[in-house]
Amino acid sequence: TATGRCANKYLFHAEGRTFSLALLPVSACGSVVLMPPDRYHNFFERQFRANGFHVPVEIPHYTFAKPASTEVSGCRALAQTIAALEEDPQANADVTEKQRRASQWAQEQLGMEAVHRFMLTTLRKYHALQRFKPGFVTPHGKKMKQVTWNQVKANVLRIFTPAERAKYSSGPHWGPPVKPVPRSL
Question: Member of which family (predicted)?
Answer without folding.
Answer: Belongs to the glycosyltransferase 90 family.
